[in-house]
Structure formats: C-alpha cells, structure tokens
Amino acid sequence: MGTTDEANSLRLEGNDHFRAKRYHNAVNAYTKSLQCRLTAEALSNRAQAYLCMKQSEKALMDARKAIAMDPFSIKGRYRHAMALINLELYEMAFDDLEKILEIDPNNKETQKMKEAIKDKVSQVRILPNIIPPSPCTSYQFLFDYTTLKTLPEMFAEYFLSIHCADYKAILGEVIETDMISVLVEGYHKILTPENFLRIIDSLVQLGSVPRFDIASMFLDADDKQALRGLLQRGELDEARKTLIERLYDL
Question: What sequence ranges are listed for the domain RNA-polymerase II-associated protein 3-like C-terminal (predicted)?
Fold first, then answer.
C-alpha cells in the first residue's frame, strides 16, 4: 500500500490518459492508484475506462465496488447503470437510474437515459419453463436472476446447480439482499430430506463470498424467520446450526 498522495497522483495520471483516450493506460494508472489506496473515485474512474473499452462486465464490477464504498456516488451508480444497459439488464439499470434521481432529481443525463430504456424495461419478459444451466460468469448469473427472481423454486434449483467452490468467483461481487431473500423462499419450497444438507451447505458457503456481509445486513425479520424455519426441517449438527445463526445474525 502506498500513501494517499501517491494514490491521488496516479488517479490524476489516469484521468490525463483517459482524456487523451488512452484507455488501456488509464486502466493501468487507476489500478496502480487502487493498489496504493482503495477509493470509490478511482474504482468509478476505472469503470468508465472499461466502459470505453467495451469491457462492460469489468466496468460493472468496479462500479459495484464503488457504490458499496460510497452509496451516494452518482458517477459510480450511473456507470453501474450503463454497464447493465450494455449487458441488456435493463430492469436493474432502471433501478439504478431511479436511485440517482432520488439523490439528484434534476440530473438531466439520468432522466434522459431513464426515458430511453423505459420501453425495454416495460417489455414483458417471457418466463422460463426450464432451469437455465449453471452460470460460468457473474454476468450470466445476473441475467438469469432477472428471469428467475419471481420464480423462487426454479431460482433455488438453479442456485443449487452452482458448485460451492465457484461461489466466490461468480457471486462475490454481485450478491444482493433480494437474491438471498428469493433463495431462502425457494429453498423452503424445494427442501426434502435428501437435499437438506446440500441446502444448508449452500447457505454456509454463501456466507464466505466477499459481499455477503453487506447483503445479509439488510435481511428483514421475515427472511430471518424463514431461515430459522429451514434449520428446523432436518437433522443438523450443532456446529453447522450455530454457524448459520452467526452468519445470518439469527
């Protein structure tokens, strides 16, 4: 780690490269800045550089981290929305744009973009009648979630198809509170004596992904009651029961 001054100097160097449209150089400078000091501003700037390089998934991850560090970062949230739009995740992008307008109701750029994607958001999405294959990327998981979030049973089966060893790579930067809520609801519906321990292990391993602490923090009383109910539906050793209770603050 370097000093704050070093981090800021490298970020400004990145800005110079960006203005000159040397986007690869800008990314390198922002990365060095982040190695010195992790800041929402440098993450947001690197996200914009990735957007200009048509690397929307990387832009999404950086913008998401920037928002986690500074929920009121308008630039970070707008770049997050732009990455989602590029990935055709319009509903999630629309939510981002609405959050920006809650902070800055007169933001004309955001108003214009919200209007531009309104029709895409309002289009009726055809609900899947089969469970999608296990995702290989965070983007694929996000895309599948937009179609499965109103189908808790299918989402739960889909989630169980993901190898626990892949949770960190696929879910680490994208897991959100609403996803956990839908998952718990779905697990209640598909739980059997045969898959009980798989479901418990899935919940334990989910607790190890980087964003879990933030996502689980906002689970409501109903979610936690549902989790307690899950624990009572099978034979469970005390160690795992205690671990689940600690991870989910039950």
Answer: 135-224
